[in-house]
Specification:
With 238 residues, this protein is mainly alpha-helical. It has ten helices and two strands. Helix 4 crosses helix 9, helix 5 packs parallel to helix 9 and helix 6 runs antiparallel to helix 7.
Length: 238
């Protein structure tokens, strides 16, 4: 037990619930008339599916950490579940976030996995290189996925006031846990851009300008080096 390390990766409650509901729709789980609000209400004649919907969509984060995720087994009030979830988070060795995965990937490795991977990978040079290559691949995946992770892609598609009212109700206690975790780890309260357009304005355009400056500077440096080389050859020939 002395080697047990406990960590958790959290996701924004609204994005998580919308993602889960959309996944159910794509997999053919029909609820009511198939509208998003039917899934959020867990309006289903099947007790089994109703329980699944409530378990995954109704403040699942708070109850998974503070009581029981399975809705039929929940015994505590939402407030009690939130407080127990907060207590559990205080004992975590590492708390990461889906939205911050670009930075949390290596942070998680340093805090939790570095020691164990060193023991498993062995001491041979090729084993160390293979482990490093694998981590670089995963990091590249995190970078490529960053626009999706830091944008309210799913929430931005919701315009129905009824759906928003249900989302706020079914994630109210999850949001308390999520906000507490971000505050506990010193993260910004809101890690999101509203949409891809805002992401491009904030990161894409400045990034493109920086890249252009680097390219121009590299080109100028190459041209200067070529001129020096030509001057050196001319001096030698004279």
């Amino acid at each position: 037990w002395e080697k047990v390390r406990v960590f958790i990766i959290l996701r924004d409650p609204v994005e998580r619930v919308l993602s889960a509901a959309r996944w159910m729709q794509r997999k053919g789980v029909t609820v009511g008339t198939g509208r998003l609000q039917d899934y959020l209400r867990a309006d289903c004649p099947s007790p089994y599916i109703e329980n699944k919907l409530k378990s995954y969509l109704h403040n699942a984060m708070a109850y998974q950490l503070g009581d029981q995720m399975n809705a039929s087994l929940r015994k505590r009030s939402p407030e009690e579940a939130v407080e127990r979830a907060k207590a559990l988070l205080r004992d975590m060795e590492f708390i990461g976030f889906y939205e911050d995965w670009q930075s949390d990937y290596y942070a998680l490795y340093d805090v939790i996995f570095k020691q164990y991977e060193a023991e498993q990978e062995g001491t041979a040079a090729w084993q160390r290189w293979l482990g490093a290559f694998r981590r670089v691949l995963f990091y590249i995946g995190a970078v490529v996925s960053r626009p999706r992770m830091v944008t309210r892609k799913l929430a931005a598609q919701v315009s129905d006031p009824e759906v928003w009212e249900l989302l706020r109700e079914q994630t109210f206690h999850d949001q308390q846990v999520y906000d507490f975790a971000r505050n506990l780890t010193g993260r910004p309260a809101n890690p999101f851009y509203d949409d891809y357009a805002q992401l491009i304005r904030k990161e894409g355009i400045p990034g493109a300008v920086i890249l252009l400056v680097i390219v121009v500077l590299c080109g100028a440096a190459a041209e200067f080096a070529a001129e020096l080389a030509v001057a050196g050859v001319a001096a030698d020939s004279s």
